[in-house]
Design goal:
Layout lengths: L1 H47 L3 H22 L3
């Protein structure tokens, strides 16, 4: 009779351990899914967002070139 009780207790402990493992797996799955969605959202945003810095650099380069061209034209 003690053997059957011990077997039942060990079976219950195994079930509890499996529940804990399943809970950990579910938590990791949810975190992974959220991270994947965030990564996709960032990639889509980065792809569709206008690049204002590129326009600024082009304008700056144009102004910079104009400044030096003006200096070269004035040999006086």
């Amino acid at each position: 009779m003690n053997i059957k009780i011990e077997e039942l207790l060990s079976a219950l402990n195994k079930k509890e351990e499996e529940k804990q493992k399943n809970t950990v797996l579910w938590v990791l799955a949810v975190i992974g899914a959220v991270a994947a969605i965030a990564g996709i959202a960032f990639a889509v945003y980065h792809f569709f967002a206008p690049d204002y810095l590129e326009d600024f650099e082009e304008d700056f380069d144009d102004d910079f070139d104009d400044y030096f061209e003006d200096e070269e034209e004035k040999p006086e």
